[in-house]
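Homework-ish question, so no full write-ups if that breaks the rules, but can someone show me the predicted structure for this set?
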Amino acid sequence: EAGVAQSPRYKIIEKRQSVAFWCNPISGHATLYWYQQILGQGPKLLIQFQNNGVVDDSQLPKDRFSAERLKGVDSTLKIQPAKLEDSAVYLCASSLGLAGATDTQYFGPGTRLTVL
Amino acid sequence: GNSVTQMEGPVTLSEEAFLTINCTYTATGYPSLFWYVQYPGEGLQLLLKATKADDKGSNKGFEATYRKETTSFHLEKGSVQVSDSAVYFCALSNFNKFYFGSGTKLNVKP
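A: Not a homework solution, just the prediction itself:
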């Protein structure tokens, strides 16, 4: 079974530039998550999709971050414009989307963003 | 609310030492509990999980028991190896939402 795919693996941009990340979840997984992981910290949920609908985006900085999951499969996360504090690893994860508390998330390798 | 608290690191051990990383949680209802591991330069990998009270999750010599009475899910391994050096995250899932601890870095020296 193929895992969660993300690209690019690394990105270096200057502040105020735009950047986009792509994620392809495990086939058949209804739920997709984007996390931000700042060095030395645990993952922080940015947005959670169930199929192509947003379940939770309460911690997404909506003035600069946006995400979409067209057709309920792959997803893109965009930052426009980037700030220095956006330097982090952006992790995508997916899960079957089971009801209740028995779901398991599977993570991609992440995209390491450096904003100069 | 839901939250996870884990012991701060780094934890430094010699090879073959016994490992315990403490994790406690706060949750409503009946969450599932997880340990994820992150090796340098890689994404998070599921290490083990437990879905109900008194369940023991185990994998690669690691184990953790879901203790509802103490709201804990401590990670243990009897004999660590250098290759176990990584960051370990405790997490809980409740109503299809996930909550992660801040991670504990483990350094194992030969």
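Now go work out the reasoning yourself. Hint: Residues 23 and 79 of chain A are 15 Å apart (CA to CA).
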